[in-house]
Amino acid sequence: MPAAPVVQMGCLSPACFVLSSSVIKPWWESFQHHLGEGQCQNVDDGWKLADSMPSSAPALSLFPLWGSLLFLSACSSLIPQDFYSDSPGGFEINLDHRKLKTPQAKLFTVPSEALAIAVATEWDSQKDTIKFYTMHLTTLCNTALDNPTQRNKVQLIRAAVKFLETDTLCYRVEEPAALAELQKKEWDPIVAWAEKRYNVAIGSSTSIMGPNISASTRDTFISHLASYNMWALQGIEYVITQLKSLILSMGLIDRHITVEKAVLLSRLEEEYQIQRWGNVEWAHDYDLCELRARAAAGTLFVHLCSESSTVKHKLLQD
Amino acid sequence: MATLGSPLRTLRGLLRELRHVSGRAYRDTAAYRHILAAFRAHRVTSEKLCRAQQELHFQAATYLCLLRSVRQHQALHREYHGRGERSPEEVAGLVGFRLPRQPGGRAEAAPCRPLLGTK
């Protein structure tokens, strides 16, 4: 085994600046290095490495920034864990041969391979510094794994359905007339679709009290959301909080509208004002991109956590 | 169903975003292989609408939106919000001083030299 100095993330010692040719090894060597480590694990721990490893580690490359203290080796690989004990299987992420952990120091395990690949890509896209605010999928996985607000399924669903009373699509203005007209034209079809699909009555309102949501409507949504697992529910609640609308989030989850359209509908009044008064790139576009990123990450997270066709291992249940 | 456009366009956009992320070696990444494999597996040759294909296309379009908007957000942040703090040299230069060059010494211990004075 070559004793090459492996670059660790976040290491501040000047020794990291040493860039020797032995450190840049081809990615398959780093895999074999890890295999050597893994096979020494005690099988009594209840897990062993899968026999067929996906060839998934990208080329190990270093970005030595002379004069900067923090640099990152862009190499993240994912190792599938085949659990043959009672704990379910999943995928882990390795960053420079160290296992990724959540903020509460739990092992980072995701149920779906596509989700793990997306998280690994997020880590790979960090260049000089790690910008956690751009890694939305990682944040969502951490939230699902740690559950920092300590909410169980019932509380999550209740928080999600509570948004219906303050749903953006149900709050209409009376003036300016052009905006009221725009809201009617854009939002009414989506509300009608939701009413038809879920067989509920939602309606809209111009008063400050908002629409009157009946108990049966609430129960319908509660029972619909109960069919999702805990991970997907975290994602759904995230999307609802970002878009400020339960109906738009349902439209996204059911693939009725695209992310761009959902974000546009959520920001309808802002778009109207932008059309009227002009666009400020460093504020409007900034917020637009951020909202799109978050909504897209949430939707993707929900879909990847709730699909059952391509998952080879059991879904992580709470 | 959502109006998504052609899958080819989505795929090309995804590959372009992956190139932005990984650079020259984007074809070795797991994401590239996974996306291509998924698109190939769900390629529809008959005329019927395939629901799995639609679902995959929606996921691909969502992922494309995520990658694209994260990249644009970062670019906007760099351009408008990312100036950060000034370095000590710049701060000293604001009032016309230069930091002393002492190997192993601390800048605060030694007095600052004026910028326009003789060395």
Features:
heterodimer, A: 318 residues, alpha+beta, ATP12-like, ATP12-like fold, 5 strands, 7% strand, globular, disordered N terminus, B: 119 residues, mainly alpha, two-stranded antiparallel sheet
In short:
Chain B: Belongs to the FMC1 family. The complex is a heterodimer of chains A (318) and B (119). By secondary structure, chain A is an alpha+beta fold.
Annotate the secondary structure layout.
The complex is a heterodimer of chains A (about 325) and B (about 120).
Chain A: H1 27-39, E1 47-49, E2 76-83, E3 90-95, E4 98-99, E5 109-110, H2 113-124, H3 136-146, H4 153-162, H5 177-198, H6 215-225, H7 230-243, H8 246-253, H9 259-266, H10 268-277, H11 281-306
Antiparallel strand pairs in A: 1-2, 2-3, 3-4, 3-5
Chain B: H1 7-22, H2 30-41, H3 51-81, H4 88-94, E1 97-98, E2 113-114
Antiparallel strand pairs in B: 1-2
Helix pairs in contact in B: 1-2, 1-3
Task: Describe the protein in words.
Chain A is of the alpha+beta class and 318 residues long. Chain A is 46% helix and 7% strand. Chain A has three domains: 3-78, no CATH class; 81-146, ATP12-like; 153-306, ATP12 ATPase (ATP12-like fold), CATH 1.10.3580. In chain A, strands 1, 2, 3, 4 and 5 form a five-stranded antiparallel β-sheet that branches. In chain A, helix 7 (230-243) packs antiparallel against helix 11. Chain B is mostly helical and 119 residues long. Chain B has a two-stranded antiparallel ribbon. The longest helix of chain B has 31 residues, at 51-81. Chain B is elongated, with a radius of gyration of 26 Å. The termini of chain B are far apart. Chain A binds chain B through residues 27, 54, 56-59, 61, 74, 77-78, 113-114, 117-118, 120-121, 124-125, 131, 134, 136-137, 255-261, 281-282, 285-286, 288-290, 292-293, 296-297, 299-300, 303-304, 307, 309, and chain B through 1-4, 18, 21-22, 25, 28-31, 33-34, 38, 52, 54-55, 58-59, 61-63, 65-66, 69-70, 72-74, 76-77, 79-81. Chain A: Its main location: mitochondrion. Chain A: This is ATP synthase mitochondrial F1 complex assembly factor 2. Chain A: InterPro entries: ATP12_ATP_synth-F1-assembly, ATP12_ATP_synth-F1-assembly_N, ATP12_ortho_dom_sf. Chain A: One of its GO terms (cellular component) is mitochondrial inner membrane.
